[in-house]
Amino acid sequence: MLVVVARQGYTATRLEDVAAQALVTRGALYHHFRSKAELFAAAVAARWGELAGEIFGLLDGPQAPLDRLERFVAGYVERVSTDARFRELLEVVVLRTEADLDLEPGLVDKQQAVGAWLEALVPVLDDAYAAHALRPGLEARAAAADVVIVLNGVTVTAALAGAEDTGLMDAARIARTVVGGLAR
């Protein structure tokens, strides 16, 4: 499904196109999914499920909290720059899903995903705050929100850039800049 939506956009994608790409019948799709929107949500969730564990796993480890955060940000940017499947997912979610009433439940999913990102980042930044590693006046939740906002910017930039242009994103530099802006 994501390959077809990346090529045609959500609105122009027909289940016949998806079935042809998947080498199944349209009836087979309807056997498992009630609608194009349901299939799309399942495809996005499945692809994100494949990738999220690796990305969020970068926050784990015995290193100092801001070192783990820097590794996470660099890993995300590197993944955006080098992993075609990840970039395709981002392009589909950011650029190729036009306003469509059928996708409104997906907007709720996106909002919940932002909440999940915050919940993954806050404990790391709580540790940084407790270690007096965050700059004065910056609390963990605000720092986590800043990281999510920057990564959303990376996401949009990568989705708008062609695959050849994402090489301009220097993962280590971006991670140092982000974490350096949060650090004491």
Along the chain, the helix and strand elements come as HHHHHHHHH
> How many distinct helices?
9
Structural class: mainly alpha
What composes the largest sheet? none
As a percent range, the share of strand residues is under 5%
Shape: elongated
Helix content estimate: over 70%
> Radius of gyration in whole Å, from Cα?
18 Å
Rounded to the nearest angstrom, the distance between the terminal CA atoms is 45 Å
Number of strands: 0
> Unreliable runs, pLDDT <50, ≥5 residues?
none
- The average pLDDT is 88
Secondary structure: elements and pairs:
Blueprint: H1 2-8, H2 15-22, H3 26-32, H4 36-57, H5 65-82, H6 84-94, H7 104-130, H8 140-160, H9 171-182
Helix pairs in contact: 1-6, 4-6, 5-6, 5-7, 5-8, 5-9, 6-8, 7-8
Architecture overview:
This protein is mostly helical and 184 residues long. It is 72% helix and 0% strand. It is built from nine helices and no strands. It has helices at 2-8, 15-22, 26-32, 36-57, 65-82, 84-94, 104-130, 140-160, 171-182. Helix 1 (2-8) crosses helix 6 (84-94) and helix 5 (65-82) packs across helix 6 (84-94). The longest helix is centred in the middle third of the chain and has 27 residues, at 104-130. The chain is elongated and about 60 Å long.
